[in-house]
Amino acid sequence: MSADRIQGVRGMNDVLPADEALWQRFEDTVAACMRAYGYHRIRTPIVEHTRLFVRGIGEVTDIVEKEMYSFTDALNGEQLTLRPEGTAGVVRSVIEHNLLYDGPRRLWYAGPMFRHERPQKGRYRQFHQVGLEALGMPGPDVDAEVILLCHRLWADLGLQGVRLEINTLGQADERRAHREALIEHFQRHASELDEDARRRLHSNPLRILDTKNPAMQPIAESAPRLIDFLGEASLAHFEGLQSLLRAQNIPWRVNPRLVRGLDYYNLSVFEWVAADGLTLCGGGRYDPLIGMLGGKPAPGCGFGIGVERVLDQMRAQAGVQPGSACDVYVVHQGAAALPAAVQAAERLRDAGLDVITHAGGGSFKSQFKRADASGAFAAVVIGDDEAASGEATVKWLRDAGAAPGEGRQQRVAMAALAELIVDALVAADPDA
Ligand code: HAM
Predict the structure, then answer these.
(1) Neighbour-count burial for 106-120, b at 16+ CB within 10 Å, e otherwise
(2) How many structural domains compose the chain?
């Protein structure tokens, strides 16, 4: 009787080798983009104290109310949570290590995040984010910088049709005045409010504007606008961002209902939205957060990109060539050939080549099938005969330009093997 099969957790996906070339291309492009703008990578733990997220993200948010994977550490009673986003952990780390002691910081991160949402296309329970946080810089120039970085990233990834929406959330006192006007407006429509809205009416009425309920749209549309409650400084900050975007020819749309799902934001917020309506990236300014988490108050601004959503766009738009798995596949047969094959493979790797050594036995014919399927440039064949004479047979598997020609083979002294293959590879692809 065989044991029952254990499946992966719903909404948490394996990334299989077939997708590796795509992930690699995304990650390399992100790293180059971050470097181009002076951002340095930071890696924080996947688990943090629950209260970090409750205080940072806000008690009355979808994430904290119903999406966090929280648990009690049975060994010491600590209340812990799998991070649902990256900003709170990065800010905690910056405070803990006093990273702002000598001036502003530009940081970026990448890794898995966890939210207990209903899985569907582009929405998972374990997903990946790439994010950045620009800390200690108060001006709209930094808001523009992080938006420009994103814009460059889409271009470098070959993505088209990703549109930018921006809004301003002003400052806390401005939002308070707006909030009172909002509550008054929603109270006037009390009988038309859905359950979510009624619950949020006093705790977080701004989030009612974010409602996806079609029946609520007219009430949300006709609500008082925050922008009409903003003072001069907030308006100037927003105009400062827009004039920098204008100067760089970045198109955008002001979406007055863009409020974001986390409570730490103030002033500029933005989202990059794909043609299919999914948000690829969300972010904005969060000047109160460092103070809220017990640090010496300092401004901050950043974004998070949903990696799976961007990869979906890349699959649909940009097309990615699968990378070849290796340069050389070593075929061998006979007891004396095995140590010679292992030795040859190690020397080839010393020369910088990627090498698979056949394992598991089998006829030459079946081994050659594997060599072909591996995508290797050449097979190195070692039988007892080659082993005895300190030689190897090289069989060229791909007919690539100046390379020796598919199907041809030649015998070569072991000592000259690496040079022969490296020269042939370079001749076939001088950029490799
Ligand atoms: P967020 O809008 O919650 O912001 O998430 C950022 C992005 O992560 C979303 O736009 C989306 O692409 C992706 N995402 C979110 N939830 C899921 C999910 N369940 N499955 C797949 N993708 C998802 C933040 O997390 C902020 N920390 C961003 C930020 C950084 N703001 C300032 N600094």
Answers:
(1) bbbbbbebbbebeee
(2) 2
Cα(136)–Cα(290) distance, rounded to whole angstroms? Answer: 10
170 ligand 1 Cβ < 6 A: no
Report the separation in Å between the CA atom of 131 and the middle of ligand 1, taken as the mean of its atom positions.
Answer: 9
Q: What is the pLDDT of residues 353-378, one digit of tens each?
A: 999 999 999 999 999 999 999 989 99
Are residues 114 and 41 part of one domain?
yes
Q: Which atom of ligand 1 is nearest to the CA of 283?
A: 31
Where in the sequence is the domain holding 276, given as residue range(s)? 17-170+230-318
What is the 110 CA–ligand 1 centroid distance (Å)? 12
Same domain for 389 and 297, yes or no, is: no
What three-state secondary structure class fits 135? strand
Please provide residue 409's backbone torsions phi and psi, each rounded to the nearest 5 degrees.
-140, 160
- 3, part of any domain: no
In terms of domains, do 153 and 58 share one? yes
Q: What is the pTM of this model?
A: 0.88
**From the CA of 355, how far away is ligand 1's center (Å)?**
39
Per-residue confidence (pLDDT) for residue 39, from 0 to 100: 97
**Quick check: is 180 in a domain?**
no
